Amino acid sequence: MDRTHSDILIIGAGMAGLSCADALKKAGREVRLLDKGRGPGGRMAARRAEISGATVSFDHGAQYFTARDAAFKEVVANWHAAGVVAPWPAAGEDAWVGVPGMNGPIRAMGIEHDVHWGVRGQTLSRLDQGWLVDAGDDSFTADTVLIAVPAEQAAEILANVADDLASVPAGVESAPCWAVMVAFEERLPIESDGLRDADARISWAARNSAKPQRTGSETWVLHASPERSREIIDSPKEEAAKLLLADFFAQTGAAPQEPVHLVAHRWLYAMPAAVKGDAARFDTALNLGIAGDYLHSPRVEGAFLSGRALAEAVIESGK
């Protein structure tokens, strides 16, 4: 069993975890990150598919993000200069997307850090000094552990080792979302590249191929509303994809077309209800902390600001 020690170990290398790592590294701290994903993304993931002999990428998680906080605006401006994000007016005047996929900024941030992809931090155990993180075939030790994963997963990791801290994510309810990735041979007779209707079965639909630097002649991503997602939550992926594609055509009034590619993905923890209080929590006695959009706001910006707030709390504590 490989046991690797870190000063600070972050579980989760999505926007919150990497934002936290960026700030800690800037302050001169040594950081290691674990992430269960095979590569950068989290809820900003991009899914590749071979369609008609070409590789096509779908943004099946977050579709775009906005920047309102001054600090985040500065970071987004730097990303834009580096060519990892671009504006996408179809979603709004202040809408941004990662390029060439939504995971563009996550990929750029991850390069700067020691990230172990495909490694899931499962349980924590208290040591005389620090923590032991069980990650299946591997284990890691660290003086400080910071958890930056969805609330439900954070609560599970913290169970039985930090009851007060665990109670925060344990009280969060996240709405599910079925996402459908679909491609057609010909352009659909739909003028808009982004369709939003919170009260409809398909609450968001985007012509993915219309985003900056995307490939594919006519590709769409459909997001079912929380209500519709719950109705079919346990459906097989193939069935869910067909049902939601039918919903899409019914809503838009476009004549149904046979897709050349149709795949569904179920996000169980797509939209968390934000917790009131601090943007991050750090227990100085336990050297244990949490960050995530559920502590600030359920947006990419919220995850970024929560991660930075956790880093600031660690730095101020002197841990």
What is the fold's blueprint, element by element?
Layout: E1 3-11, H1 15-26, E2 31-35, E3 47-51, E4 54-58, E5 65-66, H2 70-82, E6 85-87, E7 95-98, H3 104-111, E8 114-117, E9 123-126, E10 131-135, E11 138-147, H4 151-158, H5 163-170, E12 174-183, E13 194-196, E14 202-207, E15 219-224, H6 226-231, H7 237-252, E16 261-272, E17 281-283, E18 288-290, H8 300-317
Parallel strand pairs: 1-2, 1-11, 2-8, 11-18
Antiparallel strand pairs: 3-4, 5-7, 6-7, 9-10, 10-11, 12-15, 12-16, 13-14, 14-15, 17-18
Description:
With 319 residues, the protein is an alpha+beta fold. It is built from eight helices and 18 strands.
Short description:
It contains eight helices and 18 strands. It is of the alpha+beta class and 319 residues long. Strand 9 (123-126) and strand 10 form a beta hairpin.
Question: Which features characterize this protein?
Answer:
319 residues; single chain; alpha+beta
According to DSSP, the number of beta strands is 18
Spans of at least 5 consecutive residues with low confidence = none
Indicate the proportion of strand residues.
25-35%
Distance from N terminus to C terminus (CA atoms, Å) equals 28 Å
User: What is the helix content?
Assistant: 25-40%
Q: Assign the structural class, choosing from mainly alpha, mainly beta, alpha/beta, alpha+beta, or little secondary structure.
A: alpha+beta
Can you summarize the main beta sheet?
8 strands, mixed
